[in-house]
Amino acid sequence: MWRVAIPTTLDGHTRQTGSDDFEEEPCQPTSPGVPTAVSPCSSRRLPWISIGALLAVAFKVSDNNAASNSMMTTSAQMAPTSQPIENVKLVVKSDEEHARMGPEGTWHDAFLPADFSVKAGAVVKVTVYNYDEGEHSFTAPGLGANVAIAAGSKSKPAVTTFTIHAPAKAGLYEWLCAIPCDPWAMNQNGYMRGNVRVV
Ligand SMILES: [Cu+2]
Question: What's the gap in Å between 171 CA and the centre of ligand 1?
Answer without folding.
Answer: 24
